[in-house]
């Protein structure tokens, strides 16, 4: 394949009536990555995934999936596994039988059923009725269904939705396993923290546009959060003035000042404070969470 990106979109737009769900989205998903597609409720994640799967048509813009244009979805869809809407599961049939029915319909070898059950760690409960499964097990059955065609690209919409912490950890392990098998995984979440530990590429979506598209490591290392506990109002005002002049916002939390800013701003702040005679400023540098980074990006403070 020519392209190193499993997915590329260029200025993708989708309106629903007067509402713009996807608003000129340009992004990429590198081959072999676990890409986190993150943004708050209503940001346009599901609509983007549905566009990529040929379920809705864009009003403008273009995209390629596995090297083929969106308009040729019949060329790439056989190589894509997706869990976007709740899958049709027969609750009265076992997990295994559900998969066997699907395998027969899709023309996949029956041996795939055992393999995908292993991958999603559902083998032990495969003979139980799907209707009795916990939410986490239902999600894993859905992923197993998406994996039946042994896809190169796996698209999962909110796979961790409603899972407890243990379920989320299990899901992460499964995603890493699939990446190890050479698959590209694109998964969406509105809970930014969920993807912090597993995604190696991030696309952050806000109001239908990408506010960040790049490596997770770069995003996490370029920005820091400074925490300062001022000794008096003079220090408080000085820090606020210097920070605002540099174009960064200051928020107050339990008396401490918090500043989301590029790495290195702590040194500039300290130097400028010293120039005005304040030499005893204590600045703590913290690694912000994805949630804080998202908020900083949305406020227009690009790294
Ligand atoms: N079929 C539709 N008809 C009308 N409006 C729609 C339709 N699908 C989505 N929208 C609107 O488009 C916007 C984006 O929705 P979308 O479901 O893509 O967001 P999302 O990021 O997936 O959100 P969530 O995390 O809540 O699933 C929302 O304002 C939504 O109401």
TrEMBL record:
> Which SUPFAM superfamilies does the UniProt record give?
P-loop containing nucleoside triphosphate hydrolases (SSF52540)
What molecular functions are annotated in GO for this chain? Answer: ATP binding; ATP hydrolysis activity
Superkingdom to which the source organism belongs: Bacteria
rRNA-binding in keyword set:
no
Q: Name one Pfam family in it.
A: ABC_tran
Which residues belong to the signal peptide in this entry?
Answer: none
Instruction: Give every ABC transporter domain span.
Output: 7-232
Q: Which UniProt keywords apply?
A: ATP-binding, Nucleotide-binding, Transport
Q: Which InterPro entries match?
A: AAA+_ATPase, ABC_transporter-like_ATP-bd, ABC_transporter-like_CS, P-loop_NTPase
- Of which family is this protein a member? Belongs to the ABC transporter superfamily.
What is the protein name for this chain? ATP-binding cassette domain-containing protein
Q: Which organism is it from?
A: Arthrobacter terricola
């Amino acid at each position: 394949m020519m392209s190193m990106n499993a997915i590329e979109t260029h200025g993708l737009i989708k309106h629903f009536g007067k509402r713009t769900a996807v608003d000129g989205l340009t992004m990429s998903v590198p081959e072999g990555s676990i890409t986190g597609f993150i943004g708050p409720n209503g940001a346009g994640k599901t609509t983007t995934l549905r566009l990529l799967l040929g379920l809705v048509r864009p009003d403008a813009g273009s995209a390629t999936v596995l090297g083929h244009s969106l308009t040729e979805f019949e060329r790439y869809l056989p190589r894509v596994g997706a869990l976007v809407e709740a899958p049709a599961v027969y609750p009265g049939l076992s997990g295994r039988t559900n998969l066997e029915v699907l395998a027969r319909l899709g023309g996949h070898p029956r041996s795939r059923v055992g393999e995908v059950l292993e991958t999603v760690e559902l083998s032990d409960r495969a003979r139980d009725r799907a209707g009795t499964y916990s939410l986490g097990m239902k999600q894993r059955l859905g992923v197993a269904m998406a994996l039946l065609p042994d896809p190169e690209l796996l698209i999962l919409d909110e796979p961790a939705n409603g899972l407890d912490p243990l379920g989320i950890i299990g899901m992460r392990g499964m995603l890493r396993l699939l990446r190890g098998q050479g698959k590209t995984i694109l998964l969406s979440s509105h809970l930014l923290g969920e993807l912090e530990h597993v995604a190696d590429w991030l696309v952050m979506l806000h109001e239908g546009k990408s506010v960040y598209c790049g490596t997770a490591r770069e995003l996490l290392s370029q920005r820091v959060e400074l925490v300062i506990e001022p000794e008096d109002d003079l220090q408080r005002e000085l820090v606020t003035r210097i920070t605002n002049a540099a174009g960064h916002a200051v928020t107050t939390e339990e008396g401490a000042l918090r500043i989301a800013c590029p790495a290195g701003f702590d040194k500039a702040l300290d130097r400028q404070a010293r120039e005005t005679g304040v030499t005893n400023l204590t600045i703590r540098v913290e690694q912000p969470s994805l949630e804080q980074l998202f908020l900083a990006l949305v406020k227009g403070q690009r790294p």
